[in-house]
Write a structure and sequence with these properties.
By secondary structure, this protein is mainly alpha-helical. The protein has four helices and no strands.
Amino acid sequence: MSTESISDRGEHVRSIGVTALAALAGVGAAFLSAVITGDAATVEAAATDTRTYMIVLAAILIQFPLINAAGIYEEEEFGPKHYLFISFMTFSLWFVVWGILLTVEYTA
């Protein structure tokens, strides 16, 4: 017999949804960064382009209203831990994917 309750399953599905949204936002920001810096003369010039930082920051900030509008978390449940988690997941996936795209010299 399963000892898992319905509320535990709901929390699990909710955490999967937030993690997937953060991951997809990070990957999307990486591809957009690659497109924006595709005309750079060198990989070093592309890596130091400050527009890419604005892209990942926008990808992070857009998620907070989306999560609140979707009603995934109640207002009192969404705390600093959630902000840090979403920011870290989005940034780390952007960093890794964009690093790979810079290494293989992706051009859109």
